[in-house]
Each structure stands twice: as C-alpha cells, then as structure tokens.
Amino acid sequence: MTAPSDAATVVGTYARRAQFARAETTAVTRPRLLPKLLRTGPRVAEIPCGAGHFLTEYARTCVAVTLVDACPHMLAAAVEHAVLAGIPVDRTVPTVTYLQELEFLAEVDVVVAPNAALNQLARQASLTVMLTALRRVLRPGAEVLAQVACTYPGGGVDSATFYDAARQHGVWFPDRWLDPAHTGGAVLRCRRQHRDDDRLRIDFAYLDATGHTLHATTVELTLFSARRLRDAFTAAGFVRVRFLPGLDGLSEVLAVTGPGAES
What we know:
Blueprint: H1 5-25, H2 34-40, E1 43-46, H3 55-61, E2 64-69, H4 72-85, E3 92-96, E4 110-113, H5 117-121, H6 127-136, E5 143-148, E6 173-177, E7 188-196, E8 199-207, E9 213-222, H7 226-235, E10 238-244, E11 251-257
Parallel strand pairs: 1-2, 1-4, 2-3, 4-5
Antiparallel strand pairs: 5-11, 6-7, 7-8, 8-9, 10-11
Helix pairs in contact: 1-4, 6-7
C-alpha cells in the first residue's frame, strides 16, 4: 500500500523535530499495562517509535526491540537512544516504513503504539484500515498495547504531556523546559492548543535562551471514544479487546491478534 501524500507530508515535518524528540519522550507516562507484557513477551516492537519512548523499560527486561518509524531522522534518534538506554545493537532492529507498508513481524510478541500515536495516524487514514494492516503482519496471539487520547460521556477528555483540556485554548503558554545539550540549544517548548469536537491541533515552538524560535510545528490528532476503539480493533481482527480509562493521563487499549493473521 502506498503511503498517502498527506502522511508523507506529515512525516517530512518530523525531520527537524527529531532533535527535540528524545527530550520530549522523557516526560511521557509509562503505560500501566506495559510491565506485565514485557515479562511475558521477549520480543517487542514500538510503532511508530519516534525517538523511542520506553527504551529504558525494554532494556531492564532484556527484550529484543524492533523500532519502526516512517521518518529516517526519528528512527536514527531512536537507535541512538536505544544504545544509551542499554539495549545491545544485536537486540535492536530499526525499520524505516509506514505502518501500512510493514512486512510480516513473525518474531514479535508485543507491539506498543505510544503516546497517542494512533490518534495522530487517524488524521491520515482510517483507524480500522491501520489496525487491519497491523494485524495482518502479526502472528496470531501477539498483543498490541496502545496509549490513546479519548473522550468520555459528559465532555471529559484525557490529558497528556501535549494536551490539557483545563488549560486555556488558542493562546501560547510555556509548556516544558528542555535540556539544551539534547535539543540543539532549545531550552523551552511553548504550546498552543485548539479543540474542535473530536479534533485536536497542537502548535509547538522551541525557543533558545534568548527567546528566539528555533523551530515550530503543528500536530493534529483525532480523539477516540472507548466504543470506537473497541469497534475498530474488533473489525480489524483483534480479540479480547480491553480498555483502561486514563487516570490523569492517556487511556490504554490492549488487544490480541485473532486467528487468520496473514504473512
């Protein structure tokens, strides 16, 4: 399947952001369901990995790691991050590709989709189509854990390191202090957030010590409901779909590939 042109455009914007991504991943909340999965599955894939989100956890449990991202710059940052986290090179498999173009991951026991990555991907392609593509490259019985941003009856919405519904929308505010040694000189990330029903647009600006903007970018996401997630995973061929609501953070979905996964 050829990657859609809008997805290629989005991937292109991540090339410059890669230098800031490693510092950003340090603040991402670790999934509550991840530790148990890593004890039972010795081979894990992070898709899309960005600069690598949970590499320290992978290193501690001695799993083999496949890192998948469509942006070569992000993948290079992830590989470097993996080495620093203590994952041996012979246990790291970097793969540059779009999710829809993945080849068979026969050796993978657990797939982790971190930090609302599915919400971002859903702005370029159908959630069910993406999950079907993922299911087809996994062996039956493989588990998929996704951190997702969700809405709830009554208007509630998950919070994350990139979005807080309680903060004012449409205005810039200081978001996170950064270590300039790992961010090309940036010391501050500023954020401006917008929400239109189930759509989020988050603007980021990375500033140096003088307040000069080194880089600016925008991330767009689609918010999910628990029902939409369950329906999409089920339609894509997953079974035993479990939804864990966010607790002052992102929600989690855990699902198992059903019979009929194809190479």
